[in-house]
C-alpha cells in the first residue's frame, strides 16, 4: 500500500493519486540491496541505508584534476658556498683570519603515510558523538492517559506487539496491568519502525484500535506523530499518547 503524504490515507499498490484527497502519490520501487519499498527518487534506502543513486563517472580526464591534494616535498636549497679567505703575509704578529662557517639550511622532512588511516580531528569526532547522542534521544514512548504511566518502546526490534500475555505472540508492551485491560485482545496491535518513522496497525483485535478517536481498519496502518492518541478497544478506556523523547 502507498501512504498519502498529505492525508495519510492508505492507497492500494499501483495508485498514482490519493483516493481521498487526490494528491499525486510518489512512485515506489524496491531497494536493490534489501528489497524494502522506497520512492523512486530516494537517495538512500530508509531500511538498510544503501545509496540508491548511480555513481557518476567524470567524462573529461582532467575534470576532477586538482580536487585531491597532492603532497609536495619542498626542493632542497643549495648550501651557501664558503667565501674565500684572504691570504695574509707571514709575520711574527700576524695570524690567519678564522674561516667563516658556511650557513646551514635545514629542509623540512616530507610527511609520508603508508598503510595507515589518520585519526579524525577532535572537533569532527565530537560532532560524530553528538550526532549519535541525538539519534539515541529519538526514542518513542507511550503515556497511559488514565494513569499517566510511561511505557518506553523497545528500540532493538522492528515490530512491537501490543497486547496481553499469550502463547502465540508474546507482547512487547503488556497492558494487562492497566485498568480496563479486559477489553484489549491478547494480540491487539503492532507498532512498526521503518527508518525514523513509526506506524501502527490493528492485527485483528476484538474491540478495534482507534487513532485520535477514528477507527483504524484491520490491514491499514497509520503513521504515528507526537501527540497522537491510541485507544485499544472501544470507549477510550485504555488510551495512550504517542511521544518522541
Average residue pLDDT: 75
Output the radius of gyration: 35 Å
Say how many strands there are: 15
Structural class: mainly beta
Query: Termini, distance in Å?
Result: 29 Å
**Biggest sheet layout:** 6 strands, antiparallel
Strand content: 15-25%
As a percent range, the share of helical residues equals under 10%
Contiguous low-pLDDT stretches (5 residues minimum) are 89-97
Order of helices and strands: EEEEHEEEEEEEEEEE
**Helix count?**
1
The strand line-up of the biggest sheet is 6-5-15-14-11-12
Coarse shape? extended
Write the topology of this structure.
Elements (H helix, E strand, L loop, with lengths): L1 E2 L6 E2 L16 E3 L6 E3 L82 H16 L2 E5 L5 E3 L6 E5 L9 E2 L12 E8 L2 E6 L6 E3 L2 E2 L5 E3 L5 E4 L6 E6 L1
Structure description:
The protein is mostly beta strands and 245 residues long. The protein is built from one helix and 15 strands, in the order ββββαβββββββββββ. The protein has one helix at 122-137, and strands spanning 2-3, 10-11, 28-30, 37-39, 140-144, 150-152, 159-163, 173-174, 187-194, 197-202, 209-211, 214-215, 221-223, 229-232, 239-244. It has a six-stranded antiparallel β-sheet, with no helix packed on it. Strands 8-7-9-10-13 form a five-stranded mixed β-sheet, with no helix packed on it. β11 (209-211) and β12 form a beta hairpin. The chain is extended, with a radius of gyration of 35 Å.
Amino acid at each position: 500500500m502507498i501512504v498519502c503524504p498529505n492525508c495519510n490515507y492508505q492507497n492500494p499498490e499501483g495508485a498514482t493519486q490519493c483516493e481521498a484527497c487526490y494528491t499525486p502519490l510518489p512512485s515506489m520501487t524496491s531497494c536493490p540491496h534489501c528489497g524494502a519499498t522506497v520512492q523512486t527518487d530516494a537517495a538512500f534506502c530508509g531500511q538498510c541505508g544503501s545509496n540508491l543513486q548511480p555513481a557518476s563517472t567524470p567524462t573529461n580526464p582532467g575534470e576532477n584534476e586538482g580536487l585531491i591534494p597532492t603532497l609536495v616535498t619542498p626542493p632542497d636549497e643549495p648550501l651557501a658556498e664558503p667565501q674565500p679567505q684572504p691570504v695574509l703575509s707571514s709575520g711574527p704578529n700576524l695570524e690567519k683570519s678564522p674561516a667563516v662557517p658556511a650557513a646551514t639550511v635545514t629542509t623540512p622532512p616530507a610527511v609520508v603515510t603508508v598503510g595507515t588511516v589518520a585519526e579524525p580531528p577532535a572537533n569532527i569526532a565530537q560532532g560524530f558523538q553528538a550526532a549519535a547522542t541525538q539519534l539515541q534521544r529519538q526514542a518513542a514512548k507511550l503515556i497511559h492517559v488514565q494513569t499517566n504511566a510511561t511505557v518506553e518502546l523497545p528500540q532493538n526490534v522492528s515490530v512491537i506487539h501490543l497486547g496481553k500475555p499469550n502463547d502465540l505472540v508474546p507482547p512487547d508492551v503488556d497492558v494487562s496491568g492497566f485498568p480496563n485491560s479486559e477489553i484489549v485482545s491478547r494480540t491487539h496491535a503492532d507498532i512498526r519502525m521503518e527508518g525514523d518513522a513509526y506506524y501502527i496497525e490493528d492485527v485483528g483485535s476484538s474491540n478495534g484500535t482507534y487513532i485520535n478517536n477514528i477507527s483504524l481498519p484491520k490491514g491499514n496502518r497509520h503513521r504515528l506523530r507526537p501527540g497522537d492518541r491510541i485507544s485499544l478497544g472501544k470507549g477510550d478506556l485504555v488510551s495512550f499518547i504517542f511521544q518522541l523523547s
